[in-house]
C-alpha cells in the first residue's frame, strides 16, 4: 500500500506538472493577447484620474535620462461625457499619456499609426534646439506618418522647464482625441527659486471643447462656399477628458452615462496644490474658477511669474497657466470647479450646447455622493473673447528683450471671401496651404545640398520674405541669416479672437490694445522693456493689435499661426526660416525624409479649394 501511494503521488506529479505548465502557458497567452488587444484599441477607456498626478517622489537632481514611450494610434468609439463619438486615440485611452521629464532629458516616442488617416505629433512649446525636423508640423518640418507606418520622435528637452503639451498637427485631428500633457521639471534648487508659493502636490488639468462629430466632416462644412467663417460650435466641454451630459437633452445621440462622472480632484486640506491648466481645445476660450477659492497664478506658458491672486482664469486654446490652490478656512469639503466656454465668440446658436463643464474638488473622502453645495462667484461671467489681463505679471527669471529690433514685420490678419464664395484667413495677402509631400525644411536643405542655383541664390538674402523659393500667396516664409531680433506687429481686421502661437520660441509681449496701434508702437519706441511677460501663445483680440518681439536664433523652419484650429486650416499661418546660413549646412535625417515617399500620406488632410471650383452650393 505505501508503495502504491508513492507510485500514485509520483504518477500524479508526473501528470500534473505538464498540465500546470500548460495551464500557466495558456493563461499567459490569454493575458498577452488581452494586452495586445488593449494596445490595438479593442477596449477604449478614459484615463484614470491619478495618471495626471505628478510623481511625488521625483528625483529632481538626477539625469539626464532617456524617457521612452510606445504609442499605438488607432480609431475607437468612446463616450467621454456620455455621448458616443468616433475618436482617434493613443493606446486606446483618452486623453493621451503624461510625459513627465526633467530638463536635459531625452524623449523617445515610438509612434505606430494603425488609424485610417495619416498623422503627426507636434510637441507644443518645446524649442527643439538642433532637432527642428522633430517638431511634427506637417508641410513645414515633416510629411505625415501614413496609415500602417511607424516613426520615432527623438529629441532633448533643454533650456526650458514648465507646462507644455503635444497634439496631432494633421488637419483638425487633435480635436478627435490626439492630445496630452508634458511637464518638464527643473533642478530642485531652481524649482524652489522659480515657484515662490510652496506646494506639496502637483497635478495636470486639461480643459477642452468637445465635438460629437468627426473633425474631418466639420472641416468640410466650415470651409465650404458661403460659410463666411462660421466656425463649428462645440456642443460640450470636458475636463481631463470627462464630462456628464443629460442624455434626455440629446435624443438624437447615442448616449449613456453609465460609469461616467465629473472629473474628481482629491486634494489635501493640509497643504497647497499646484494645478497646471492646459487648454487643449480647438476653438473655445474658457473661464475657469473654483467656487469660493482665490488662487495664486504662478506660471504662464512655461514661464514662472511672480504670484498674482485671482479667482477666475481665462485661458485660450494652446495656452497654459499654473495656479496654486490653498485649502479654504473653514473648509466645506466639496467645491465645484467650473470651466465655462466664452460663448460670445460663437457664430450661431447650437441647440445641443452645454456651455459649462464641472469638476469636483474634494478635500476629504466621503462615502456620500460628491455633490458640492458651493457658491458661484457673484460677478458676471466674461463676454469678451480675449486674453487674461496679464499686464501685471512679471517673470521670476528676469530677461529683458534687446533694446531694438532689427526687423519689424507688420501682419494684417483678416478673413476674405474670394472665388466661389470661399472664406479664407489671410496674413497680409497670404492664405497658407500646406504642401504635404514637400515640407519647407526638406525643400530648402535638399536644394542647398544639390547646389540648386535658385536655392544658393536665396542664401544671398540676409533677411526678408523669401518669394524666390516660395509662393507668398500660399506659403509666406520670412528668412533670416545670422541672429536677428524681430518685432511682429499683428493687427486684427476680423471680429474673431486669434491665439497666435510661435513654434520653437517664447516671445516678449511688448504692447497690446484695441483699434489702430499708436505711432510709437509702430516705430517700436517708448516701450517698457524692463521685464515684460514671455510666452509662446498670445491672443489677438477682435479688431485689436499686439506687438511681440523674439530673437531669431534657433536654426530651423518654425510655424507662426493662429491656434484656433479652424482658423489655421483656413489659412492663418506663416513660417520663419531662421539661421539659413546654419541650416544650409544641416541635413534632414533619412528616416524623416522617407516619410514623404510612402503611399497614403495625404489621407486625412484638409480639403483642397479646387473641389469647390464651379460649385455654389
TrEMBL record:
UniProt cross-references to Gene3D superfamilies, sorted A to Z: Cupredoxins - blue copper proteins
SUPFAM superfamilies attached to this UniProt entry = Cupredoxins (SSF49503)
PROSITE patterns in the cross-refs: MULTICOPPER_OXIDASE1, MULTICOPPER_OXIDASE2
Name used for this protein in its record:
Multicopper oxidase
- State the organism named in the record: Massarina eburnea CBS 473.64
Q: Is Nucleotide-binding among this UniProt entry's keywords? A: no
Q: What InterPro entries does its record include?
A: Cu-oxidase-like_N, Cu-oxidase_2nd, Cu-oxidase_C, Cu-oxidase_fam, Cu_oxidase_CS, Cu_oxidase_Cu_BS, Cupredoxin
CDD domains cross-referenced by the UniProt entry: CuRO_1_Diphenol_Ox, CuRO_3_MCO_like_4
Q: Which GO terms describe its molecular function?
A: copper ion binding; oxidoreductase activity
Plastocyanin-like domain residues: 75-188, 202-344, 437-580
PANTHER family, sorted: ADR239WP, MULTI-COPPER OXIDASE
Q: Which UniProt keywords apply?
A: Copper, Membrane, Metal-binding, Oxidoreductase, Transmembrane, Transmembrane helix
Q: Where are the transmembrane segments?
A: 12-31
Family the UniProt entry places it in = Belongs to the multicopper oxidase family.
Which residues constitute the signal peptide according to the record?
Answer: none
Amino acid at each position: 500500500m505505501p508503495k502504491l501511494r508513492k507510485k500514485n503521488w509520483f504518477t500524479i506529479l508526473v501528470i500534473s506538472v505538464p498540465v500546470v505548465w500548460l495551464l500557466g502557458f495558456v493563461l499567459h497567452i490569454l493575458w498577452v493577447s488581452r494586452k495586445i488587444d488593449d494596445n490595438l484599441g479593442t477596449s477604449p477607456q478614459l484615463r484614470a484620474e491619478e495618471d495626471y498626478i505628478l510623481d511625488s517622489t521625483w528625483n529632481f537632481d538626477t539625469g539626464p535620462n532617456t524617457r521612452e514611450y510606445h504609442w499605438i494610434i488607432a480609431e475607437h468609439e468612446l463616450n467621454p461625457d456620455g455621448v458616443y463619438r468616433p475618436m482617434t486615440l493613443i493606446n486606446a485611452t483618452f486623453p493621451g499619456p503624461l510625459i513627465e521629464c526633467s530638463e536635459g532629458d531625452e524623449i523617445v516616442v515610438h509612434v505606430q499609426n494603425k488609424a485610417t488617416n495619416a498623422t503627426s505629433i507636434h510637441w507644443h512649446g518645446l524649442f527643439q534646439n538642433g532637432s527642428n525636423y522633430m517638431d511634427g508640423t506637417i508641410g513645414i518640418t515633416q510629411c505625415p506618418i501614413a496609415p500602417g507606418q511607424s516613426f520615432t520622435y527623438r529629441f532633448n528637452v533643454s533650456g526650458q522647464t514648465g507646462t507644455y503639451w503635444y497634439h496631432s498637427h494633421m488637419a483638425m485631428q487633435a480635436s478627435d482625441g490626439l492630445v496630452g500633457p508634458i511637464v518638464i521639471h527643473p533642478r530642485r534648487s531652481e524649482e524652489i527659486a522659480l515657484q515662490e508659493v510652496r506646494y506639496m502636490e502637483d497635478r495636470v488639468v486639461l480643459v477642452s471643447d468637445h465635438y460629437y462629430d468627426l473633425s474631418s466632416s466639420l472641416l468640410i462644412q466650415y470651409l465650404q462656399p458661403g460659410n463666411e467663417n462660421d466656425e463649428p460650435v462645440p456642443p460640450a466641454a470636458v475636463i481631463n477628458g470627462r464630462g456628464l451630459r443629460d442624455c434626455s437633452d440629446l435624443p438624437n445621440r447615442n448616449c449613456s452615462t453609465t460609469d461616467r462622472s465629473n472629473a474628481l480632484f482629491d486634494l489635501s486640506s493640509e497643504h497647497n496644490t499646484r494645478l497646471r491648466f492646459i487648454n487643449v481645445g480647438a476653438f473655445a476660450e474658457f473661464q475657469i474658477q473654483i467656487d469660493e477659492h482665490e488662487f495664486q497664478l504662478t506660471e504662464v506658458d512655461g514661464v514662472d511669474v511672480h504670484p498674482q491672486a485671482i479667482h477666475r482664469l481665462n485661458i485660450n486654446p494652446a495656452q497654459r497657466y499654473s495656479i496654486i490652490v490653498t485649502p479654504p478656512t473653514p473648509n466645506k469639503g466639496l467645491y465645484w470647479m467650473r470651466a465655462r466656454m466664452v460663448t460670445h465668440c460663437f457664430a450661431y446658436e447650437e441647440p445641443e450646447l452645454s456651455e459649462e463643464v464641472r469638476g469636483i474638488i474634494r478635500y476629504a473622502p466621503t462615502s456620500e455622493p460628491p455633490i458640492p453645495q458651493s457658491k458661484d462667484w457673484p460677478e458676471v461671467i466674461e463676454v469678451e473673447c480675449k486674453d487674461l489681463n496679464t499686464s501685471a505679471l512679471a517673470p521670476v527669471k528676469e530677461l529683458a528683450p534687446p533694446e531694438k529690433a532689427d526687423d519689424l514685420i507688420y501682419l494684417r490678419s483678416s478673413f476674405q471671401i474670394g472665388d466661389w464664395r470661399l472664406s479664407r484667413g489671410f496674413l497680409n495677402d497670404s492664405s497658407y496651404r500646406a504642401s504635404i509631400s514637400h515640407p519647407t525644411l526638406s525643400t530648402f536643405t535638399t536644394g542647398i545640398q544639390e547646389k540648386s542655383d535658385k536655392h544658393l541664390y536665396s542664401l544671398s538674402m540676409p533677411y526678408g520674405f523669401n518669394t524666390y523659393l516660395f509662393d507668398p500667396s500660399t506659403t509666406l516664409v520670412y528668412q533670416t541669416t545670422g541672429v536677428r531680433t524681430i518685432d511682429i506687429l499683428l493687427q486684427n481686421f476680423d471680429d474673431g479672437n486669434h491665439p497666435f502661437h510661435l513654434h520653437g520660441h517664447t516671445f516678449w509681449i511688448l504692447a497690446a490694445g484695441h483699434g489702430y496701434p499708436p505711432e510709437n508702437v509702430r516705430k517700436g519706441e517708448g516701450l517698457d522693456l524692463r521685464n515684460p511677460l514671455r510666452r509662446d501663445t498670445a491672443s489677438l483680440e477682435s479688431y485689436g493689435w499686439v506687438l511681440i518681439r523674439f530673437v531669431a536664433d534657433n536654426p530651423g523652419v518654425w510655424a507662426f499661426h493662429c491656434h484656433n484650429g479652424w482658423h489655421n486650416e483656413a489659412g492663418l499661418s506663416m513660417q520663419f526660416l531662421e539661421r539659413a546660413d546654419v541650416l544650409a549646412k544641416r541635413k534632414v535625417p533619412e528616416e524623416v525624409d522617407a516619410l514623404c515617399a510612402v503611399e497614403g500620406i495625404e489621407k486625412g488632410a484638409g480639403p483642397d479649394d479646387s473641389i469647390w471650383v464651379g460649385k455654389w452650393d
